[in-house]
Write a structure and sequence with these properties.
53% helix; single chain; H-NOX domain; binds protoporphyrin IX containing FE
């Protein structure tokens, strides 16, 4: 994971729980808290921080990861305005994530750990995103989708029909978007 992701996790923890909690997480995981935005760090370092946050707060890991995704979205928006052309909707934006956004991210940062999404574009109000990644961060995807829905001011319901955490080869995130 890129250092920028660790820095944003620090922002979220400090905002919600205070700087002393972040310091305690660093102590518990033996990390120094210095992450260069553009450098890649082992995924295990990020997962260790999330596990420590779970042990400290009692909040389930899935909930923490989803909340982090929701927190990340406005930051991604702020730093990547070029992807947000006028006229986008939640659905047309989500279709761009794998086809354009992550493609551009990969060009700029060939070492970025990016997932793969395939789409089943059912009709105007429905979309299935089939998520595959060795990191199994499907709850992060759920949180990012929630952040995007907030950004576009659209309502949706999501069912997580298949999940890699249940031994499936990929996760199926099925969205029904309100008219
Ligand atoms: C402006 C929008 C977006 C930008 C700029 C962006 C960029 C990135 C970057 C840079 C990473 C890699 C981080 C690393 O290597 O440490 C990443 C990972 C990821 N992105 Fe995106 N992303 C965007 C939107 C989304 C959305 C809307 C979704 C969900 C549908 C999504 C799903 C994910 C997931 C789940 C990961 C974690 C890696 C994994 O699952 O293997 N992204 N993204």
């Amino acid at each position: 994971m890129k250092g920028v992701v660790f820095n944003l996790l620090e922002d979220m923890v400090e905002k919600n729980f205070g700087v002393e909690v972040w310091d305690a997480l660093l102590d518990e995981t033996g990390q120094d808290g210095v992450y260069v935005s553009s450098e890649s760090y082992p995924d295990e370092m990020l997962f260790a921080l999330v596990v420590a946050a779970h042990e400290k707060s009692g909040i389930p890991i899935n909930d923490l990861v989803r909340a982090f995704g929701e927190f990340l979205f406005p930051q991604f928006y702020k730093d990547n305005q070029e992807f947000f052309k006028p006229g986008l909707t939640l659905k047309s934006f989500l279709l761009l994530v794998d086809r354009v956004i992550h493609v551009e991210v990969r060009k700029l940062h060939p070492d970025a750990g990016l997932p793969q999404f395939e789409y089943v574009d059912e009709d105007d109000s429905e979309l299935t995103m089939i998520y595959t990644s060795p990191r199994k961060l499907c709850m992060l995807a759920e949180g990012l989708i929630a952040g995007a829905a907030m950004h576009f001011d659209e309502d949706y319901t999501l069912t997580h029909d298949k999940c890699m955490h249940d031994g499936e080869a990929s996760c199926e995130l099925h969205l029904k978007i309100a008219a």
